[in-house]
Design goal:
This protein has about 160 residues and is α+β, with helices and mostly antiparallel strands. About 35% of the residues lie in helices and about 35% in strands. A hairpin with a 4-residue loop joins strand 6 and strand 7.
């Protein structure tokens, strides 16, 4: 499925893409929290398999030409008695950041949420991840407040 111009969004197959998705998720922990100590591979893969069964188009690798350059993880969930979209992960490899690709991942997410008939979406971002916070503000998301003892900030946006 191609929804981002020259980027290709390819549904994740956990067996086929295991090395890439684990490395990308681990790097996302390092970028967000400064280390990977709280990343547990087996727990992540178990969670991922379950969520892919529920939302197959919400879990995609991002490819440019023949190289995987990122990953998106999207779900639909209940929050305060309403159904919202949830961005579990926007990830780009370091050399692809700051080049306008994040907005393409975000457009993919917005279309996923439209397809699933939700107009509000949330995510949580590390309070120390200034680049991500700047991007989320730039695309119009607003902060709802700190969570997890201030380690993350919940943000929301609308389609």
């Amino acid at each position: 499925m191609n929804r981002g111009g020259e980027l290709i969004f390819e549904n994740i197959d956990v067996k086929q893409h295991c090395n890439d998705i684990v490395e990308f998720r681990k790097d996302s922990f390092a970028a967000s929290f400064g280390n990977t100590s709280s990343f547990v591979k087996d727990e992540y893969l178990h969670w991922l398999k379950n969520k892919i069964n529920e939302f197959p188009n919400g879990f995609v690798l991002v490819r440019e030409h023949d190289k995987y350059i990122g990953q998106v993880e999207l779900t639909i969930r209940e929050y305060q008695n309403r159904t919202i979209g949830y961005i579990n992960l926007y990830y780009l490899i370091p050399e692809m950041r700051g080049k306008g690709n994040s907005i393409k991942l975000h457009r993919y997410a917005e279309q996923f949420f439209k397809d699933n008939k939700v107009n509000e979406y949330h995510l949580r971002v590390s309070s120390s991840n200034k680049a991500a916070l700047n991007f989320y503000h730039k695309i119009g998301m607003e902060e709802l407040g700190p969570e997890v003892d201030g380690k993350v900030i919940r943000m929301k946006g609308y389609i």
